[in-house]
Amino acid sequence: MLSKDYKETAVYLHTLKGVAANLGFGRMEKLCFEMMEALRSEEYPTIKHLNEMLSVEYHLIIEALQDLN
Fold first, then answer.
1. CA 25, 46, 64: angle at the middle one, nearest 5?
2. Range of the domain at 30
3. Which residue in 35, 38, 61, 68 has the most C-beta neighbors within 10 A?
């Protein structure tokens, strides 16, 4: 069973996945989905790796949006 922190993380990931899907950020949506699955399976090294990838994707999106100015 997931700890409270991981349950909260899953809720946040689910929300971010939905927002990413609505905005057309497919890679972010996929990473969120994969991270949610890793959380359910308690694959902690995978969670860490996916979190790092999600951070990179977030920064790429921010940079792209800033370039629109």
1. 25
2. 4-67
3. 35
- The answer to whether the CB of 57 falls within 8 A of the CB of 31 is yes
CB 28 within 8 A of CB 13: no
What single letter denotes the amino acid at residue 52?
A: E
What pLDDT, on the 0 to 100 scale, is given for residue 1? 46
CB atoms within 10 A of CB 45: 8
Q: What is the DSSP letter of 25?
A: -
Tens place of pLDDT for every residue, the chain, 69 residues? 456 678 888 899 999 999 999 999 999 999 999 999 999 998 989 999 999 999 999 999 999 999 998
Task: For residue 31, give the nearest of 58, 59, 5 by alpha carbon.
Answer: 58
This prediction's pTM:
0.87
Is the sign of the CA dihedral 38, 43, 48, 53 positive or negative?
negative
